[in-house]
């Protein structure tokens, strides 16, 4: 004869588990737009990724991996790569904090941005998620 074990879970524990799942999905949604980047691929008619985060003093390199010519032209006029053909790269070092929006001068519908953040102290790993209780 087999026995079935019944597991009784306190309602607050179940609520905590559901809240943690909900919070992690929200963190994933936010972090996918705020990924730390050092390289951007230009493929066909898109920057991949088209947005990200870097630090002041750090560099990002854009590389044309497609067969069409493109540019990396900053909206502010801070820099312009000139025409990049397949396999060519352009590197930009962020001199100050702020959002650096850019586009392709040949294909203006192609856009992207990098948020350059001021240098800071030690950071917690991305996997760290604070537990908030009420």
Report on the architecture of this protein:
This protein has 134 residues and is α/β, with parallel strands linked by helices. The chain is 16% helix and 29% strand. It is built from one helix and eight strands, in the order αββββββββ. The strands form two sheets. Strands 2-1-4-6 form a four-stranded mixed β-sheet, with no helix packed on it. Strands 3-8-7-5 form a four-stranded mixed β-sheet, with no helix packed on it. A hairpin with a 7-residue loop joins β7 and β8. The longest helix has 21 residues, at 11-31. The termini are far apart. The model is unreliable at 9-32 and 128-134 (pLDDT under 50).
Topology:
Elements (H helix, E strand, L loop, with lengths): L10 H21 L7 E5 L2 E3 L2 E5 L3 E6 L8 E2 L14 E5 L4 E6 L7 E7 L17
Q: What would the keywords be for this entry?
A:
four-stranded mixed β-sheet; alpha/beta; 134 residues; disordered C terminus
Largest sheet, described in full? 4 strands, mixed
Low-confidence stretches: 9-32, 128-134
Counting DSSP H or I runs of 4 or more residues, the number of helices is: 1
Biggest sheet, spatial arrangement of strands: 2-1-4-6
Structural class designation = alpha/beta
Mean pLDDT: 78
Short description:
The protein is α/β, with parallel strands linked by helices and 134 residues long. The chain is 16% helix and 29% strand.
